[in-house]
Amino acid sequence: MKIPFNRLDLQFYMYQDEYEKKALEVLRSGWYILGREVEEFEREFSKYIGSKYTVGLASGLDALVIAFRALDIKEGDEVIVQANTYIASVMGITMNGATPVFIEPDEFFNIDANKIEEKITSKTKAILVTHLYGQCSNMDGIVKICEKYKLKLVEDCAQSHGAKFNNIFTGTFGIGCFSFYPSKNLGCFGDGGAITTNDEEIMKKIKTLRNYGSNKRYYNEVVGYNSRLDELQAGLLRIKLKYLDELNNEREEIALRYLTEIKNPLISLPKVRENSTSVWHLFVIQIKNREKFMKYLSDNGIDTVIHYPIPPHLSEAYKILGYKEGSFPITEEYSKEVLSLPLYNGLAKNEQDYVINIINDYKEVN
Ligand SMILES: *Cc1c(COP(=O)(O)O)cnc(C)c1O
Q1: Is the beta carbon of 83 within 6 A of some atom in ligand 1?
Q2: Gap from CA of 169 to ligand 1 centroid (Å)
Q3: Which atom of ligand 1 is nearest to the CA of 85?
Q4: Predicted confidence band of residue 365 (pLDDT cuts 50, 70, 90)
Q5: CA triplet 39, 41, 47: central angle to 5 degrees?
Q6: Which of 44, 77, 187, 340 could cross-link to 282 by cystine, CB 3.0-4.6 Å?
Q7: Burial zone of 267 (CB within 10 Å; 0-12 exposed, 13-18 middle, 19+ buried)
């Protein structure tokens, strides 16, 4: 049997008729940028997660960059961020000239809230949490620290659409930065992103920044960006959003099967934080001698991916920060041991069985 890591065509076919109808409607409307579909999507997404405002943008990276820009975070400022995040989180900080201050992750692969306070300095302006792999960060601990030190809170929700901590959606604790890249839980059919906020002032700044720093055509208040969610993507996202819970439930069912049926002493399964839900953006296991296991799966037709093999502090792009191997041992250990199994909408029952059985049959041989 052949199990690819992901299949995006399947989630298109699930609601094919609605997507095709909407696509034609937008194409025939003659209006493609900043129109009704974006406005409606912004309203519907706000309603879904429980934020006052949503501003549609061109990507998740743009959401991060523009969020820090709107918060006036710049050169000389420090932003606390988990060391094992996807590198875009860090780019959102450094593209504004600010300095990332890395924190090791906890056992749930999210920022370890107990290790934040010791890294706070007079330059610290914000905390960026990434709800990595679909799992909520420890928001109780983090919100308390933000209040105590008067820090801004930004959430990278690129992997956590629909995840809740204490029954509150991620993206509503601080400024939420979302990506709608096709493989995300709420993915569109190209690039897309958004910021969610309860702050009217911030919302207005972001709307200005996404459109060349302009609110009124050809009157430019600041040097901005061209970062607009387009009408076609917004229209298609409105359809997907209606089914987001259904899609996340399907992921959860597969995850629960993996959690209960994968039984192999060589493998550590992911743990879910108390009082929170995971939307299983990725199902990430840990295993020593990962490459051997990966090859075994691949020989049996199962594709896997490593999220992520090189932590930002060791990447070529951030050599300039001066970190070296050993700077963040937990992060580095994760980068050597984590592996994501196929888990996607449309992964059939017999395919799930196959993945489980092949994994349970794995023995380490030299
Ligand atoms: C995907 C992702 C991003 C970037 O989103 P794009 O839309 O690809 O720019 C940022 N942060 C995390 C954690 C992501 O997974």
Answers
A1: no
A2: 18
A3: 13
A4: confident
A5: 105
A6: 340
A7: middle
DSSP state of 49: H
- 172 within 8 A of 144, measured Cβ to Cβ: no
Q: Residue 20: which region, alpha, beta or left (left: phi > 0; alpha: psi -120 to 50)? A: alpha
Residue 316: left if φ>0, alpha if ψ -120 to 50, beta else—which one?
alpha
**Secondary structure (H, E, C), 183-237:** CCCCCCCCCCEEEEECCHHHHHHHHHHCECCEEECCEECCCCCECCCEHHHHHHH
Residues 6+ away with beta carbon under 8 Å from 139: 129, 165, 166, 168, 170, 173
Ligand 1 pocket test, pick from 91, 156, 189 with the greatest ligand atom count within 8 Å of Cβ, gives 156
**Could you count the other beta carbons within 10 Å of the beta carbon of residue 245?**
12
Q: Output the six-digit token pair for 162.
A: 């629909």
**Contact criterion met (CB below 8 Å) for 103 and 112:** yes
Query: 253-293, pLDDT tens digit by residue?
Result: 999 999 999 999 999 999 999 999 999 999 999 999 999 99
Report whether residue 155 contacts ligand 1, using a CB cutoff of 6 Å.
no
Residue found by looking up tokens 């979302």 in the block: 178
**DSSP output for 58-96:** S-HHHHHHHHHHHTT--TT-EEEEETTS-HHHHHHHHTT
Give the pLDDT confidence of 152-201 residue by residue, as tens digits: 999 999 999 999 999 999 999 999 999 999 999 999 999 999 999 999 99
Q: Is 113 in the pocket of ligand 1 (CB under 6 A)?
A: no
Cβ-count burial of 183 within 10 angstroms (0-12 exposed, 13-18 middle, 19+ buried)? middle
For 264, how many CA atoms within 13 A lie in the half-sphere containing its CB?
20
Averaged pLDDT for residues 305-333: 98
Q: Give the Å distances, CA to CA, from 255 to 95, 100, 285, 340.
A: 36, 33, 11, 12
- Tokens representing 130 are 């990434």
Residue written as token pair 């030190």? 149
CA distance readout (Å), 89 to 16, 85, 117, 319: 33, 7, 20, 16
At residue 22's C-alpha, the angle toward residues 16 and 23, to 5°, is 85
133 lines ligand 1 (CB under 6 A): no
